[in-house]
């Protein structure tokens, strides 16, 4: 039978009070440090930002180099008189607090600058303002927020104390677990055999999750590029990306010991960098999230992904319930409650490795003629009900339309979680689903109820209706019927079907020969656009490598201690350019044969093209009920 | 007792139409969704765990009546059990599904019965005990007799099915319809003291739909 905690019904979102009530989410309304308005459009005159000379060497001390076979990639130096964007080496954002290097959009920009930014609707943003990626990774508890990771890494004194700590830790862990000396030791074969699986183990049915549990003693297990572990503060396993949690319980015990050891010193562990691996810790009481990665992502980005996992767990349980459970019983086995949902978390991790949405903190729209989109949006808008907060139509992981209640905004993270939920389960294909779901960035203390259904059997078009009232199934179901009826009456179904046939556009449409791929994010709308990834990025590894390059540029551009505005990167297989302003972020991939001047010309052309196509690529007029 | 809800006026005159809410309950991965899927879509596929609850409708044109089934296929996962009462409230029939190759799911089905007994009077709901996955007979942990005996002592319908090999799935739902209709007739012959409450299904959102507390 359900544990007693389920009997409480207080997790429901009370109707009428949608905004978070507790202080826990005051971060939402924080106003990032207003900085200098640096964003200008191509073709407009550039202010002359302070330029920093940069060598070919990576600035971070953690050994993160350019993500190319070492030595080949180099940072081009700027030529003083280039066309905009001038100077393609890193330009520091002078005078900004390192914790808030990029102000969220809409705060500093003047209205006059508004219309020139492609993809930015004039009638207000669709989401709650897109918080910068740094906001995300900065801890919610103020204590640790005072220091940036760079500060900590930069100090040589800490280096040696880190060694001391790890030495001390070895001793401690021996006392605590009685068996493990360190992580490496722990993962060695033969150790886990002794562990007995707990009786109420949440068995991951291989048929259902579509994968066999791996043997954690095998080399193959250790070779995964990114491991993710979630544990409770009591050191109990909650989730492991690969291998069964039971087999890893002593490993997780060691992780918790590491965390507690530093906390005892009023300190917090953030990461360990060794041997090409990064071990990143994110602490969100009552959970601890750990990633062991040998990807080229920065620590910040890995922490960002861990936060997504945390939010994913919250979306299933709510923050309130999660805390309540662990207040009642510190050593509660959370896997009981998460059983059956591992694949949602697995899917999220896979998606983050492929889909730039998560990196961008933005949502991609299905390219659609503005008239069709408007017809869809107004059909959605008209099919409303009192309890509806959001009506979302999506296809694949692309947004078709979103209608929201007035004054209620959906955070891109929440939308990503919804996208992930839908893409990770085939069960929505049949019938109509009605499920409680928490949108943690919106309100982490309560459940919404989501009505999820596909419009037509063979069409990849999913309708998501988010309601505050769990009793409202039939009302909301009727909204779906009304929406479909309106769509039919407006006769846009055919156009919609046509658009679904080509969910991605080709970069060739832009008409720039050297251009291979790009990502353009409009910060104010929280939307981005990107063409299909085409040759030579055909194979899965190649696609991931491209995303890795973007990740690298992104991490350089958003480095908390030395953010960059413009980056031009020449590598052996492609050249890349990143351009980050207050209004947008642009990441472009060129063939390796082009020149920098050509790349800059191409950016201007590209921006013009996006501007021309913006009503097809973006949602410019977000609707409310 | 509000057991029937008319589906508006039946075009075929005297043939009555009924709407019944059927809920599937049971542990994780015993085959609740597969049973519903087999019954509604006459197909089988490996399904992923249900999130929350899925809703299907199925209309049966029988000789004596038109029956509309509203099938609520619930998630077996523990985290959804706090909301499960939403789904089985006002149900006319419940299928307690277990996996014949997993003894634990049988005990869980018994617990579900206890819960239903607390919420419903015996004549308010038709309960069927369903041993699913007869295609896994080789790994059987719950014998047919065990299931039958338990069902008999508790006055439940009993059937062993396989959604995968389409064994007795239709029969199961037919048995439920027959039982529901039998009770309907019984009631008609001796009218319930509360009178018959009919609710128009297609009424506005303010109607007392079957999900109202």
UniProtKB/TrEMBL annotation, chain A:
Residues 43-55 have a biased composition (Basic and acidic residues). Residues 514-614 form the FUZ/MON1/HPS1 third Longin domain. Residues 1-117, 133-166, 187-211 are annotated as: Disordered. One of its GO terms (biological process) is protein secretion. Residues 386-484 form the FUZ/MON1/HPS1 second Longin domain. GO terms for molecular function: guanyl-nucleotide exchange factor activity. Residues 226-348 form the FUZ/MON1/HPS1 first Longin domain. GO terms for cellular component: Mon1-Ccz1 complex. Belongs to the MON1/SAND family. Plays an important role in membrane trafficking through the secretory apparatus. This is Vacuolar fusion protein MON1 homolog. It comes from Taeniopygia guttata (Zebra finch). The gene is MON1A.
Automatic annotation (TrEMBL), chain B:
Signal peptide: none annotated. It is found in: Cell projection, Dendrite; Melanosome; Recycling endosome membrane. Pfam families: Ras (PF00071). One of its GO terms (biological process) is filopodium assembly. Its main location: other. Gene3D superfamilies: P-loop containing nucleotide triphosphate hydrolases. The keyword Transit peptide does not apply. It is an enzyme of class 3 (hydrolase). One of its GO terms (molecular function) is G protein activity. Its EC number is 3.6.5.2. It is a lipid-anchor. SMART domains: RAB, RAN, RAS, RHO. It comes from the Eukaryota. Keywords: Cell projection, Endosome, GTP-binding, Hydrolase, Lipoprotein, Magnesium, Membrane, Metal-binding, Nucleotide-binding, Phosphoprotein, Prenylation, Protein transport, Transport. Its cofactor is Mg(2+). It catalyses: GTP + H2O = GDP + phosphate + H(+). Residues 184-213 are annotated as: Disordered. One of its GO terms (cellular component) is endocytic vesicle. Residues 203-213 have a biased composition (Polar residues). PANTHER family: PTHR47978. Belongs to the small GTPase superfamily. Rab family. This is Ras-related protein Rab-17. The gene is RAB17.
